[in-house]
Design brief:
Elements: E1 8-9, E2 19-26, E3 31-41, E4 43-48, E5 51-52, E6 68-75, E7 83-91, H1 93-96, E8 113-122, E9 127-131, E10 137-140, E11 143-147, E12 151-155, E13 162-165, E14 167-168, E15 174-177, E16 183-189, E17 193-196, E18 202-219, E19 225-231, E20 233-234, E21 240-241, E22 251-255, E23 260-263, E24 270-279, E25 290-297, E26 303-307, H2 310-326, E27 327-328, E28 330-331, H3 344-357, H4 361-374, H5 403-415, H6 418-437, H7 470-491, H8 497-514, E29 515-516, E30 519-520, H9 539-547, H10 553-569, H11 581-589, H12 594-602, H13 609-614, H14 650-657, E31 660-662, E32 671-674, E33 684-691, E34 694-703, E35 706-713, E36 718-722, E37 728-731, E38 734-739
Parallel strand pairs: 6-15, 12-22, 32-36
Antiparallel strand pairs: 1-8, 1-14, 2-7, 2-10, 3-6, 3-8, 4-5, 4-7, 8-9, 10-13, 11-12, 16-25, 17-18, 18-23, 18-24, 18-25, 19-22, 19-24, 20-21, 26-33, 27-28, 29-30, 31-32, 33-34, 34-35, 35-38, 36-37
Helix pairs in contact: 3-5, 4-5, 5-6, 6-7, 7-8, 9-10, 9-11, 11-12
The chain binds beta-D-glucopyranose (BGC).
Length: 740
């Protein structure tokens, strides 16, 4: 049957309020099967006969709306009666409200629109289809405003009025069935403390920084208001702190009906640990009336890690919650301030760790589809996908655009899906070709404005850009992406000769420009023949040279010792930012410095992973110094307390400490490298990973000086074991015990 469903909108401008679209229909015959499919420009909630349908929230999710929007399909067979009302509430969401730093709205569409169709198959074999068109009725709603960044106002005293018949809406985008995971409500958390700040603010602490919203129960006078603000942290003096949200108001306003009310936002979410009851009409705050609900994409949990060091366990907890908080339909940088954007760099940095915690194949399949659609004609991939910055674009930057090569390859390693790799191969290739033609040199990337070693600590206290020259980073990432392209091409059976040659030339060009006398020389971007020799050395530069194979085998010892020396000189602390940090511990442990890697992991003074843990963090902080020793903040502008990027260290914890690494020879852990590196400081470490083949477990523990190992290998997996003593074995399905 032809689908005549039309995009419809309200006949009257309703500003930032949500509207509802209704259609009544009767069916006399017996129904065999009935489904409703729907999508929106905006965010919709579907009700049938007054009941909310489906587990998904914030539907249809966030895609690159200019290119495509998902629709969801609901089985409503059991819900239909003889007289029915289909109703869709639609709020502004990402498509219509303020987005992309919050300076303007209407980036994808200037008003909310709905498209929906009900398909009924009767037991007599006949069919009926009811579709959105001008016969649908549009009503106002009690959601008087809703914005992703600013929050939602719900007034239960507001009368719901008919606005008129729907009008057709000119939405030009492709409708696709849902590709990604559902966004759903997850954990429910109760208050852990109710406090009065020195300023007298009434604050509830949920004990966990998170993404979602607070459900509020209230029974009070009709017209009374509850006004809630959100915050991630308290400031130096213990007061409620919202400056780091920048333009995002994160304000929910609820007007009581006079009866038993249950409030929560329908079309938005917040990132928070604390709420402030800015207005509250009751004397007492009863904890049972407040429940924080965590919200994220529904992915299957696959990994778990624990060890004998409680701080590292808390770090793992924080990494996990960083992922929960930022895997909300797209991989976001942070869930709270006026961003919540699909930053490509953050996504690629963290994707390896992410694929341990959860099965992220479907989650990334959707987002990578958007990355591919938004890839520019010249092959460039921007800093943010979906693109949503009015008036300008995000940068095309090394280590950000490389999401185009890194993530498809990581998904292949974790899940072994060749079809997906094949689908993304053209995107990978176009990205490499883009770099090849960017700037004056074919074999180096000496052009453009990059984000660099973002938020590194080696360029002065308040710098966003690290000290490592960005063209050096760009060129090494060019090498890395070319390597991944070659690997992908080989898997797919393509002749990669041209790129193998390109790889060698890039490597030689990097060495020629950035090395002298067997050591790095970090030429500044604007360096010219005749300028003096640079003296700058950075940890990140050495990390990249080691990890991405810029140096020869014979040079490794020197490079690693330089890196180790710099770390020692800095009080056994890193200075690395977004680019160097993910590989820092690998660069050390792969080159004989596993002890030092552990020392860094366990370092508690900033910059370090455990600094935030020691200062009460429950998620990963954006900056090593987000909140300083004295309780002050490093910056108000770039200071999220829920930024998963530095959580990439989980890849080392699982891959090196527990020793589980997938291999490219037989991906999806069919052949897995099992090379644990025990440490007395951890006492024990246990990693369990539900691979596509079954549950894989690596566990080691100390008894005195002896280390005991226990491994569990599922059917279909071959583990290449190597223990620190040098003992090697190939293990098939079974449980194993070793001692050294
Ligand atoms: C984001 C980062 C992002 C960066 C680009 C920031 O505003 O929060 O995580 O990668 O911009 O450098």
């Amino acid at each position: 049957m032809k689908n005549n469903a039309k995009w419809i909108a309200s006949p009257r401008d309703v500003g930032c309020a949500a509207v509802s679209f209704r259609k009544d229909f009767c069916s006399q015959k017996q129904i065999k099967k009935a489904t409703v499919s729907a999508s929106a420009m905006g965010v919709y909630a579907f009700f049938l006969n007054g009941e909310r349908v489906g587990k998904g929230i914030l539907t249809p999710g966030w895609t690159s709306y200019r290119h495509r929007v998902q629709y969801q399909t609901y089985d409503v067979t059991a819900l239909l009666r003889s007289e029915n009302r289909l109703e869709f509430g639609v709020g502004q969401g990402w498509a219509v409200g303020y987005i992309g730093y919050g300076h303007s709205n209407h980036f994808f569409a200037d008003r909310v629109s709905l498209i929906a169709w009900l398909d009924v198959i009767y037991t007599d074999g006949s069919r009926e289809r009811i579709v959105t068109d001008e016969s649908w009725q549009v009503y106002s709603s009690q959601v008087l405003s809703s914005e992703i960044y600013h929050g939602e106002t719900v007034d239960l005293t507001a009368s719901v009025e008919r606005i008129g018949n729907a009008v057709l809406s000119d939405v030009q985008t492709k409708l696709i069935p849902q590709v990604g995971e559902w966004i759903t409500e997850q954990e429910r958390l109760s208050p852990v403390e109710i406090l009065r700040t020195p300023r007298g603010e009434l604050v509830i602490d949920f004990g966990q920084n998170m993404t979602g919203y607070v459900e509020v129960r209230a029974k009070g006078k009709r017209g009374d208001r509850i006004v809630i603000h959100h915050a991630e942290v308290l400031d130096q003096d213990g007061n409620f702190y919202t400056e780091n949200y920048r333009a995002a108001r994160n304000e929910n306003i609820y007007v009581l009906s006079g009866g038993e009310d249950l409030f929560k936002p329908t079309y938005t979410f917040q990132g928070f640990r604390y709420i402030r009851l800015t207005e509250y009409p009751f004397e007492e705050v009863e904890p049972k009336n407040f429940t924080a609900i965590a919200v994220h994409s529904e992915m299957k949990r696959t990994g778990d890690f624990s060890c004998g060091n409680e701080k590292i366990n808390q770090l793992y907890h924080n990494i996990l919650w960083g992922q929960k908080s930022n895997y909300l339909d797209i991989p976001t940088d942070c869930p709270q301030r006026d961003e919540r954007l699909g930053w490509t760099g953050d996504a690629q940095i963290f994707c390896r760790a992410a694929a341990f915690n959860y099965d992220v194949e479907r989650f990334f399949e959707k987002w990578l589809g958007d990355v591919a659609l938004e890839q520019n004609k010249d092959g460039s991939v921007e800093g943010i996908v979906p693109h949503c910055l009015p008036g300008h674009h995000s940068r095309v930057s090394a280590a950000w655009g490389d999401a185009a090569t890194v993530i498809p390859w990581q998904l292949y390693l974790s899940y072994g899906n060749e079809k997906l790799l094949k689908k993304h191969f053209p995107m990978m290739k176009k990205w490499v070709e883009y770099i090849r033609h960017a700037g004056p040199e074919e074999y180096l990337w000496l052009d453009g404005k990059h984000y660099g070693d973002w938020l590194a600590m080696d360029n002065g206290p308040d710098s966003y850009d690290g000290a490592t020259p960005t063209y050096y980073i760009a060129s090494v990432y060019y090498l890395h992406s070319t390597a991944l392209l070659i690997k992908a091409g080989r898997v797919l059976g393509y002749d990669m000769g041209e790129y193998e040659d390109l790889y060698e030339k890039i490597r030689a060009a990097i060495r020629a420009r950035y090395m002298k006398n067997g050591d790095l020389r970090l030429l500044p971007n604007d360096w010219k023949e005749g300028d003096g020799e640079p003296t700058l050395k950075t940890q990140t530069a050495y990390v990249l040279a080691l990890y991405f194979g810029v140096c020869e085998e014979a040079e490794r010892a020197l490079f690693a010792s330089r890196l180790a020396e710099m770390i020692r000189e800095n009080g056994t602390r890193m200075t690395t930012g977004f680019v160097g940090t993910p590989y820092l511990l690998h660069a050390l442990s792969e080159n004989g410095y596993t002890e030092l890697a552990y020392e860094l992991l366990l370092q508690e003074k900033a910059p370090s992973w455990l600094y935030s843990v020691c200062h009460g963090a429950t998620t990963m902080w954006e900056h090593w110094n987000s909140q300083k020793e004295d309780g002050s903040f490093w910056s108000t502008k770039m200071n999220s307390f829920n930024h998963y990027a530095y959580g990439a260290v989980l890849d080392w914890i699982v891959g090196v400490a527990s020793g589980i690494t997938p291999t490219e020879q037989a991906p999806a852990y069919k052949t897995v490298r099992l090379e644990p590196h025990p440490s007395k400081a951890l006492g024990f470490a246990k990693a369990v990973l539900e691979t596509r083949q079954g549950s894989l477990r690596s566990h080691w523990y100390y008894k005195g000086d002896a280390v005991y190992y226990e491994f569990e290998i599922p059917r279909g997996v071959t583990a290449k074991l190597r223990l620190p003593s040098g003992y090697e074995a190939t293990l098939g399905e079974g449980s194993y015990h070793f001692a050294e």
